[in-house]
Amino acid sequence: MSAIDIHHPHRLPMPRARAVAQQVADKLVDRFGVECRWSDDVLDFSRAGVDGSIALRPGEVHVTARLGFLFAAMQGPIEAEIRRVLGTHFG
């Protein structure tokens, strides 16, 4: 199983960071059928072959994901897309 572990800085107030993370989660649900749920300031997501979390902290977003066998081959493009989305939404 492959893993993704990304730390990305942000300057958003926590309520705004949570709203942005929810927007990203809504897109994951629509595009990939991912299931999401909040636990405090951590948004857990999963679907067959992928599970992970988006943890919000003051000044940082921490994204982790475990990729199953089929998604492991696409780890590079998946990680690049996560970094792009974080840069777009969290600056």
TrEMBL record:
It comes from Luteimonas granuli. This is Polyhydroxyalkanoic acid synthase. It comes from the Bacteria. InterPro entries: PHA_gran_rgn (IPR013433).
